[in-house]
Design goal:
Layout lengths: L1 H6 L12 H31 L3 H9 L1 H27 L3 H28 L1 H6 L5 H16 L2 H15 L3 H24 L9 H26 L14 H32 L4 H37 L3 H28 L1 H6 L5 H14 L3 H16 L3 H24 L4 H4 L2 H23 L6
C-alpha cells in the first residue's frame, strides 16, 4: 500500500493532454539533441583512434557488430519496458508500471553478465573469424575486452534513461546522455595519447573513456529517477522477478532486440564480403556507420519521444492522438534524412578526411558514401513505421521488416554484386534493400491501421 500511495493518482500526464505537435517537440527535442551529441562523441572516438593508424581504426570498426549487439539487447529490452510502462500509466495501472520498472533493472543486470562472459571467452575467436592481421587482432582484443567486461555502465544508463522517457521526463534523460558524451570527449585524447600525466593507452584508452562516460551517465540517470520520477517506484528491496511482466516486456522487446541485432549480423557479413577486396574497404564501412550515426541518432532520439506518446494514447484509447503523432513524426523524419542525403552527396571527401583517410580510403569511400546515402530518402519513413508498430504492441512487424531488409535482401545483394569484382557496386545493396523495406512498411502500416488504430475512439 505504501508503494501505491507513493504513486497514486498523479495529475494527468502531458502525453494525454498536450497538443500532439507541441508534445512531440517537447518529448523528442531533448532526446534528439542528446542523441546528436552521442553521435558526435562516437565519431570523435574513431577520429582519435584513426590517428594511431588505419589498423587501429579497422580493429574498432570490426568490433561494431558486438557493440551494436550490446546496445540492441539493452535498448530492445527497454523498448518493451517503455511500451508496457507508458501503456500502464495511460490505463492508470500504477502497480504494473512499478513492476515493469523493477523487472527492467533486473533484466539489465542479466544482460551485463552475458556480455562480461563474452568478453572474457569469445573475443579472440571473434577477431580470428574476421582477420589474420596480427596488429588488427591485437588492437581488437584490447578494445573489446574492456567494452564487454565493463558494460554495466551502458545497461544502467539504458534502463534509467528509458524509465525517464517512459514518464515524459526526456529533459533529464538528455542531461544524462550529455554527461556521458562530454565525459567521453574529455577523456578520449587524455587516455589515448597520454595527456596530463596519464599513461599513453592507445585503443585501450578509447575503450576506457567510453565505459567511464557510460557509467557516469547511468549514475546521473539513476539519481534523477530516484529524486524526480515520482510516477514510478524503483525501490528494489524485496524484489522478486515477475515472469508474467518479463514475458510482456519481451513480447515487444525480443522482436526489437532481434531487429537491432540483425544489424550486427549484417555488418559482420558485410565485413567478410568487403575484406575480400581490402581491409581499407572494411574501414570505409566502419567509418560510414560512425558518420551515419550523426544523421540517424537524432531520428532515433525522436523515436524515443514518439514511442511513449503512441503507447500512452493507445492505452488511453485516443485514435486522433496516435495518428497525429505518427504523421508529425514522419514529416520530421523526412526532413532529417533529406538533410543527411545532401551532406553525404556534397561533402563525402571532407567527412572521410576527418578520419585521417588515406588516398585509397578516399578513392573507395567517396563513391561508397554517395551511393549508400540514396537509401536515406526512404529510411525515415521506414524507421518511424517500425517504431509505431512497436509502440502499438506489434514488434513482430518491425522484426520482419528488419530481417527482410538486412538479411534477406541487403547481404545477398552485396554478395552477388561483389562477384562482379567491383567494390563500388557492393554499396548499391543499401538502396536496393531500402526499397524493399519501404514496400513492406507500407503494407504493414495499412494492416495495423485496419486492425488496431481504426478501432480506437
Amino acid at each position: 500500500m505504501a508503494e501505491m500511495n507513493n504513486a497514486a493518482m498523479p495529475k494527468e500526464n502531458k502525453m494525454g493532454v498536450m497538443p500532439v505537435g507541441k508534445l512531440l517537440i517537447n518529448m523528442s527535442l531533448p532526446m534528439m539533441i542528446s542523441m546528436l551529441v552521442l553521435s558526435l562523441y562516437n565519431i570523435v572516438d574513431s577520429i582519435f583512434v584513426a590517428q594511431i593508424n588505419e589498423n587501429a581504426l579497422t580493429a574498432v570498426s570490426l568490433a561494431f557488430p558486438v557493440q551494436n549487439l550490446m546496445i540492441a539487447v539493452g535498448m530492445g529490452t527497454c523498448v518493451g519496458v517503455n511500451a508496457l510502462l507508458s501503456k500502464s500509466l495511460g490505463e492508470k495501472n500504477y502497480e504494473r508500471a512499478n513492476a515493469s520498472a523493477r523487472n527492467a533493472i533486473f533484466l539489465m543486470a542479466i544482460s551485463f553478465v552475458v556480455f562480461f562472459l563474452f568478453g572474457v571467452f569469445c573475443t579472440d575467436w571473434f577477431y580470428g573469424m574476421q582477420t589474420t592481421e596480427p596488429e588488427i587482432a591485437e588492437f581488437g582484443h584490447e578494445y573489446m575486452v574492456i567494452i564487454c567486461c565493463m558494460s554495466f555502465g551502458i545497461y544502467l544508463q539504458a534502463v534509467m534513461e528509458k524509465l525517464l522517457q517512459s514518464t515524459g521526463k526526456t529533459l533529464y534523460a538528455m542531461f544524462s546522455q550529455l554527461i556521458g558524451a562530454i565525459t567521453n570527449l574529455i577523456l578520449d585524447p587524455i587516455m589515448i595519447f597520454g595527456l596530463l600525466g596519464f599513461p599513453k593507452m592507445g585503443v585501450s584508452g578509447a575503450a576506457i573513456a567510453t565505459v567511464i562516460g557510460q557509467l557516469f551517465a547511468g549514475i546521473f540517470a539513476t539519481y534523477m529517477n530516484v529524486k524526480y520520477n515520482t510516477e514510478i517506484n524503483i525501490n528494489m528491496r524485496h524484489f522478486r522477478p515477475n515472469f508474467h511482466i518479463i514475458g510482456r516486456i519481451y513480447a515487444v522487446g525480443v522482436p526489437s532486440i532481434i531487429m537491432q541485432s540483425v544489424t550486427s549480423l549484417m555488418v559482420y557479413g558485410m565485413n567478410l564480403i568487403l575484406i575480400t577486396f581490402s581491409t581499407t574497404a572494411t574501414a570505409v564501412l566502419g567509418v560510414y556507420f560512425k558518420i551515419q550515426s550523426f544523421i540517424f541518432m537524432p531520428l532515433f532520439g525522436m523515436n524515443n519521444g514518439m514511442i511513449p506518446i503512441i503507447a500512452y494514447n493507445y492505452g488511453a484509447d485516443s485514435r486522433k492522438r496516435v495518428t497525429g503523432t505518427i504523421k508529425y513524426s514522419m514529416l520530421v523524419a523526412f526532413c532529417i534524412m533529406a538533410t543527411g542525403f545532401a551532406i553525404f552527396q556534397i561533402f563525402p571527401d571532407r567527412l572521410l578526411q576527418m578520419f585521417n583517410a588515406s588516398d585509397m580510403m578516399l578513392a573507395l569511400g567517396v563513391p561508397a558514401l554517395r551511393t549508400i546515402s540514396y537509401s536515406f530518402i526512404l529510411a525515415g519513413y521506414c524507421i518511424i513505421a517500425g517504431s509505431a508498430f512497436q509502440a502499438l504492441g506489434n514488434g513482430v512487424y518491425s522484426l520482419i521488416m528488419s530481417v527482410m531488409r538486412q538479411l534477406v535482401v541487403l547481404l545477398p545483394a552485396a554478395y552477388f554484386l561483389a562477384q562482379l569484382g567491383n567494390v563500388d557496386l557492393v554499396w548499391l545493396s543499401f538502396p536496393i534493400a531500402e526499397l524493399m523495406s519501404f514496400a513492406t512498411a507500407t503494407f504493414f502500416l495499412f494492416k495495423i491501421n485496419r486492425k488496431i488504430i481504426s478501432t480506437l475512439h
